[in-house]
Write a structure and sequence with these properties.
alpha+beta, magnesium, 7 helices, nucleoside diphosphate kinase activity, binds ribavirin triphosphate, four-stranded antiparallel β-sheet, about 150 residues, Alpha-Beta Plaits, kinase, binds magnesium ion
Length: about 150
């Protein structure tokens, strides 16, 4: 089973979309193995988005992601990294397909509601940045044998 890091960004929380978004991840069959409501510090934001340090949008991105509470998640499932990115949709919500989270709920390139790790390396790094080992649970669900 693969694990990925996902996040409901400050706009998703402020707009009351937490339950809609969790519903999509859960309904797809992904298992929530860690979850917390938290406010990201500037230092953590800079670490999380380190690869975008030299982009024009970096300062705006850091300001936005630290602007209010987010929901940090570790999701587990077969091919979870790719599955979450598909559910999230393209980066620009105006281009994202309808039926995806960004396609259905977003309109701004910065305020694009959700994050999902883009590779195994990113997933491992981001999970470690946001969660300690003891916050990540291992458990069976009755439905697991049907997925
Ligand atoms: P994410 O990391 O948040 O899952 O999004 P992503 O992989 O689809 O996009 P990425 O290229 O990693 O960009 C990270 C975040 O930066 C913001 N962004 N703003 N204004 C802009 O031109 C612009 N481009 C990217 C978005 O919030 C994007 O999710
Ligand atoms: Mg990314």
């Amino acid at each position: 089973m693969e694990r990925t890091f996902a996040m409901i960004k400050p706009d998703g929380v402020q707009r009351g979309l937490i339950s809609d978004i969790l519903k999509r991840y859960e309904s797809k069959g992904l298992k929530i193995v860690a979850m917390k409501l938290m406010q990201i510090s500037e230092e953590m934001a800079r670490k999380h988005y380190a690869k975008h340090l030299n982009k024009d949008f970096f300062p705006e991105l850091i300001r936005f992601i630290t602007s209010g509470p987010v929901v940090a998640l570790v999701l587990e499932g077969d091919n979870a990294i790719e599955v979450v990115r598909k559910l999230n949709g393209e980066t620009n919500p105006q281009k994202a397909s309808l039926g995806t989270i960004r396609g259905d709920f977003g309109i701004s390139k910065t305020k694009n509601i959700v994050h999902g790790s883009d590779s195994k390396e990113s997933a491992e790094r981001e999970i470690q940045l946001f969660f300690s080992e003891s916050e990540i649970l291992s458990y069976e669900r009755a439905i697991d044998e049907w997925l």
